[in-house]
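Protocol step 4 of 6: structure prediction from sequence.
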Amino acid sequence: MRIFHSQAQVPADFGPSVVTIGNFDGVHTGHRAIMRAVVEAARLRGLVPTVLTFDPHPARILAPDRAPGLLMTTDQRLRALESLGIGAVLMIPFSLEFAALTPEDFIDGVLIATLRAKSVMVGEDFRFGHRQSGSAETLRVLGAARGFTFEPVPHVTWRGERVSSSAVRTAIAQGSVSRACRMLGAPFALEGEIVKGQGIGSKQTVPTLNLAPNNDVIPPDGVYITRTRDFDSVRRWPSVTNIGKRPTFGGGSVTVETFLLSPLDDPTPARIELEFLRFIRQERKFESPVALRDQIMKDVAVATRLHRRLKTG
């Protein structure tokens, strides 16, 4: 997949392309439906399936006090788009100047001059341009005049609710990571570096990997069934993860501590991706480290049963 970080990086002979436009935070099932449509349309017409997205998120420039925490890091988002068959991504550096473009300037300067769009595929409620003055109807009308088609993509629902990045954030904020998984079409995942802990687990309970997540959105305090992947190899482990302040040991800052359910072997990963599959229980204070360790073993038993079902399912 080709990645362009500005319009200037896009070669003059790029395309022609089928383009979809959006932030695509989380790359949920609604986004995935759009990507499948884009990839299929591009295949049938011999065009480049292309995503036009923004960095930073427009809300961080236009309304920073209301900007949402992001579900994915930029790298996670790009990997997800590539896995869905997208051939090129243009990441527009979003700014007040860019936000001031009229719908006509956006279409002429970006969609036509830069990406040589022959088809644009977005939802019917899509808005763009200065003060959100452009709409799907704008794309339909101006596209007909400028030589590209507009093809709307229906919204995706899950259990009667429209799937959106906001709905996924709400589910995660409630600890409902399994619900978020259904809307995402894949497990919600944190990624980041492994950092040195205080050594309490290895001495008094169980040894853990301590993650410093790069993501904005983190599930609330509690114990979760997870799956751990080493970024630098193909190694994967079933796991159980505690997010919280370790109240049994006096509390402190929030940590993300993961106990692997199968042997680690050397070397210890430097960076991991941690997939959240299911919530087990709230974090709570135990009367002793021994009592905490007993509860961890119960959590491990619950997690082991789910991982076995996933393996054989």
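Step 5 (inspection) to follow. The domain at 187-312 is CATH 2.40.30.30 (Elongation Factor Tu (Ef-tu); domain 3).
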